[in-house]
Design goal:
Layout: H1 10-22, H2 27-34, H3 38-91
């Protein structure tokens, strides 16, 4: 039977990649300490370096999404006020 691949959590990958980034130990030492293949340590380190800029961009993206949500909610409030005023004027006749 085939052996199922082990899957690692993003937190574990980040931990290993940060240790590898510190360059205090060799890749082989880190790999043996965490019982992973040295190629995985290298890949996770490269992924961390490539994706580091996204950490700082997320704040800008979430601000844009939040502003879009606020704009949509204000639009809905305005629409509901118009409907309420219209219906209240028809009911008071």
């Amino acid at each position: 039977m085939s052996k199922k691949r082990k899957q690692y959590s993003p937190a574990f990958k980040a931990k290993v990649a940060l240790i590898a980034l510190a360059n205090e130990e060799t890749t082989a030492e880190i790999a043996s300490r965490f019982e992973v293949h040295p190629a995985m340590v290298t890949k996770w380190k490269r992924d961390l370096l490539d994706g580091a800029s996204q950490v700082f961009e997320k704040g800008k993206q979430s601000d844009k999404k939040a502003q879009a949500t606020v704009d949509e909610l204000y639009r809905q409030i305005g629409k509901l006020k118009v409907e309420r005023d219209f219906l209240s004027s028809k009911l008071s006749l």
